[in-house]
Task: inverse folding
């Protein structure tokens, strides 16, 4: 896997403890299965949301990952 792009937007000053969550777990599982089934490289953009202690969104981070099978080296 390889990060091929990263973007972020900041909507509010981050004060205190910030908790990041990402709800793209099933999408990653689906992409990995597609890579295993087809052998093709597949990209996915995952979104993480940072929230402050009041639950307000302070930022949104989008990371695009590329997944592909790694060929085993012959010995």
Result:
């Amino acid at each position: 896997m390889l990060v091929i792009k990263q973007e972020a937007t900041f909507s509010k000053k981050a004060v205190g403890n910030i908790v990041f969550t990402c709800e793209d777990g099933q999408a990653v599982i689906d992409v990995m299965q597609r890579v295993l089934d087809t052998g093709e490289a597949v990209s996915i953009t995952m979104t993480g949301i940072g929230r402050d202690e009041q639950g307000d969104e302070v930022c949104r981070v989008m990371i695009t990952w590329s997944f592909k099978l790694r060929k085993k080296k012959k010995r």
User: Anything to note?
Assistant: The chain has one domain: 2-67. The longest strand covers residues 57-67. The longest helix spans residues 25-38. The radius of gyration is 16 Å.
